[in-house]
Amino acid sequence: MTAQHEIASALGRFSDPAYADTLQKMLMPHAVYLLFLFALGACVGSFLNVVAYRFPLGKSVISPPSACPKCNTRLSWRDNIPIFGWILLAGKCRYCRNPVSIRYPLVELTTALFFAGGYALMFMGDIGPIVHRSLVETNAFGIDVVKPMELTLAWDWPALVFYLVLVSFLMAASLIDFDHFVIPIRIPWAMFFLGVGLHAWLDRQGVAGSVSIDPEFAPMGMMGIGAGVGWLISMVLLRTGVFKQSFAEGSPMLDREVAERDETGSTGGPVGVSMPLKEYSKGEVRYEMRHEILFLLPPLMLAGLLGVLSMRVEAVSDVAMWLTQSNGAGGAVGAITGAAVGGLLIWVVRVFGSLLFGKEAMGLGDAHLMVGAGAIIGTGPVAMSLFLGAFAGLIHAVVLLFGSRFRSLPFGPYLAIGAILSFFLYRPFWAQYERDILAFASMIGDLFG
Ligand SMILES: [Zn+2]
Questions:
Q1: Which of 20, 89, 159, 382 has the greatest number of CB atoms lying within 10 Å of its CB?
Q2: How far is the CA of 69 from the centre of ligand 1 (A)?
Q3: pLDDT tens digits, residue range 247-306?
Q4: Residue 219 within a domain
Q5: How much is the pTM?
Q6: Cα of 104 to ligand 1 centre, how many Å?
C-alpha cells in the first residue's frame, strides 16, 4: 500500500460512523466538555451584555474596553470575570460603590447554562437534530444488526456549532428587543449569512444539524430559491423607488409609547434608537399594508412558480432531487429555504393581523429574526418554532391582559425560545409522528383532489 493509499484510507475512516463512535469513547469524559462550554458560555454572555448595551446606541462593541456606566472608571480584567466578578464585588462597582445590575451576571449564567445544557441534551441525553441514520454492528452471534446511531461529539460536532451560534445571536436580539422593543436588523442578517455559509461548509448527509431538504419534500428547496430570488427583486424595486416603504413617515407607535407621550409629552421613542415614531389610525395602518403586500408578491409568486415547476417539469424536479443529496449546495439551499419559510410565515401573519385589527401585528424585526433563525435551524424546525413561540407568547399575553395596562409585548424572546426548543425537538417529534402527519396530509389531499 502506498503512502497516498494509507492517507486515503485513514481519511476514509473519519467519515465512518462506527469509527467516529470508537473515537468518541476514547475521548475525554463529558465533564471536561461541560466545564469548558460553561466557561465559554459565561464569556460569550459577558460579551452579549456589552452588545445589548452598546449596539442599539450605535457604539462599537469592541472598543473602548468596558467602564462603569456611573463613574466611567475603566474596568480591569478582575472586574470583568463573568458571573464571579459580580459575586466577589457583592454587586457593587469597586470604584464608586454604586450598585451594578444583577442582570449582567444573570445573562452570563443563562448563556453558560444554555451552552453546557445544549451539550448535555445532545451528547448525554441523545436529544437533538438527529437525522435518519443507523449503524450496522456485528453482535455476539456474528449477526449484523442495524441499530440507531446515537449523537456523538466526534461525528455530530457541527450540530453543536450551529446551536452555539443560534443561542448567542438569539440572546443578543432578545435582550435588545426586551429593552427597546426593536431588533436591530443587522443581527438577524448576520445570522442569515453565517447560517448559509456554515451549512454550505459543514453539512454532511447523516450528520446532526444538517438542514438539507428531506427527499420527500424536495420541491421545498426550489421554492426557497424562488423566494430568495423574489426577495432580491423586491429589494431592487424598493431601492429604485418602484415599491414604497411602508410606514415611511415613522414607525407606528406602540401602546406603551402612546401612553408615555400622553403622560410626559415626549415622543422620544426607544432609547438611543433614532427612529421617528408616528401614531397611525386603524385605517392608516391597513392602508400602509399595501406596500408590504406588494413587496411580498414577488417572493411568494416565484416560490409558488418554482414549486409547481419542480412537480411538473422533470429537469427542475431532477435539480430539486439533486439538492437533497448534495452536501454543500444542499446545505446552503436548506438554510435559505429555512430563512424564507421563517420570514414569510411571520410576515404573512403580520399583514393579515394588521389588516384585521388595524394595528401593527408583530414587528418586521420578528420576521427578520425568523429569517436568521431559519437559516440556522432549517425549514421544519423554524415552522415548528412559530407554533411554540406563538403558544408561549399567547400565555404571556393573557397574563398581561390582567396584570398590565400596556398590552404590547416584545415577541422576539418568545420566538427565540421557540427556535431553541425546535432545534432539539423537531427531529424526535418528526420521527415519532411522521407517519401520522403524512397520512393526515394525504387524507386532506384526497378530500380536495
Ligand atoms: Zn463605578
A1: 382
A2: 7
A3: 877 777 766 666 666 666 655 554 444 566 778 888 888 888 999 999 999 999 999 999
A4: yes
A5: 0.85
A6: 15
Residues 247 and 295 in one domain: yes
- Ligand 1 centroid to residue 44 C-alpha, Å: 23
Same-domain status, 146 and 245: no
Confidence of residue 314 (pLDDT cuts 50, 70, 90): very high
Spacing, Cα 94 to ligand 1 middle (Å) = 7
Q: What is the pLDDT of residues 331-352, one digit of tens each?
A: 999 999 999 999 999 999 889 8
Span from the CA of 89 to the centroid of ligand 1 (angstroms): 12
Distance 241 CA to ligand 1 centre (A): 49
Secondary structure string (H, E, C) spanning the chain: CCHHHHHHHHHHHHCCHHHHHHHHHHCCCHHHHHHHHHHHHHHHHHHHHHHHHHHHHCCCCCCCCCECCCCCCECCCCCCCCCHHHHHCCCECCCCCCECCCHHHHHHHHHHHHHHHHHHHHHHCCCCCCCCCEEEEECCCCCEEEEECCCCHHHHHHHHHHHHHHHHHHHHHHHHHHHHCCCCCHHHHHHHHHHHHHHHHHCCCCCCCCCCCCHHHCHHHHHHHHHHHHHHHHHHHHHCCCCCCCCCCCEECCHHHHHHHHHHCCCCCCCCCCCCEECCCHHHHHHHHHHHHHHHHHHHHHHHHHHHHHHHCHHHHHHHHHHHHCCHHHHHHHHHHHHHHHHHHHHHHHHHHHHHHCCCCCCHHHHHHHHHHHHHHCHHHHHHHHHHHHHHHHHHHHHHHHHCCCCCCCCHHHHHHHHHHHHHHHHHHHHHHHHHHHHHHHHHHHHHC
- Domain hosting 294: range is 197-448
Same domain? 236 vs 155: no
Structurally, how many domains does the chain consist of? 2
Same domain, yes or no, for 384 and 241? yes
Mean pLDDT of the region 137-162: 83
Q: How far is the CA of 100 from the centre of ligand 1 (A)?
A: 8
pLDDT digits (tens, 9 = 90+) for 104-126: 999 999 999 999 999 999 999 88
pLDDT(13) > 80: no
